[in-house]
Amino acid sequence: MRHLKILLVDDHPGFINAAVRHLRRLDWLTVVGMAGNGIEAITQCEALRPDVVLMDLAMPEMGGLQATRLIKAQDAAPYIVIASHFDDGEHREHAMRAGADAFVSKLAYLHDVMPLLERLAGIGEQEATE
Predict the structure, then answer these.
(1) Alpha carbons within 13 A on the beta-carbon side of 15
(2) Exposed, middle or buried, 111 (CB in 10 Å: 0-12/13-18/19+)?
(3) Which residues are recorded as modified (4-aspartylphosphate) (predicted)?
(4) Per DSSP, which regions of 63-129 are E strands?
């Protein structure tokens, strides 16, 4: 099992706080940082080198799509999951074209993001090989 370092990026403190409350209970990951817009996300990625970035789509100053493009241009870029209330084919396509590795709906955020994080951490692989 791999320990994951997570960067949370969202302009709504309530959303960040709810995600942190849930994620901090998991011993196989650590929330290493938080950012409120894409500019902060780029800086945090360079400084903290997270394994995974959970990124909001729409934020002030710089949104998730532009930040994803710039972060994916960095060396050893993290796995990026775009999260949005705008859950439709067009927004999903824009996220994938920007370089996102996954897209989840904010309406089912934890339900959708947890299997991705578990897969990245290798949770469940041991049971499959035994």
Answers:
(1) 20
(2) exposed
(3) 56
(4) 79-84, 102-105
> Partners of 81 in the beta sheet?
54, 102
Residue entry with tokens 């942190």 = 20
- The one-letter code for the residue type at 86 is F
Query: For 15-44, how does the pLDDT look when each residue is reduced to its tens digit (9 = 90+)?
Result: 999 999 999 999 999 999 999 999 999 999
- CB burial of 82-99 (b: ≥16 within 10 Å; e: otherwise) equals bbbeebeeebbebbeebb
Q: How far is CA 116 from the centre of its chain?
A: 10
Task: Identify whether the C-beta of residue 55 lies closer than 8 Å to the C-beta of residue 82.
Answer: yes
pTM score, whole prediction:
0.90
Beta pairing, strands 52-56 & 29-35: unpaired
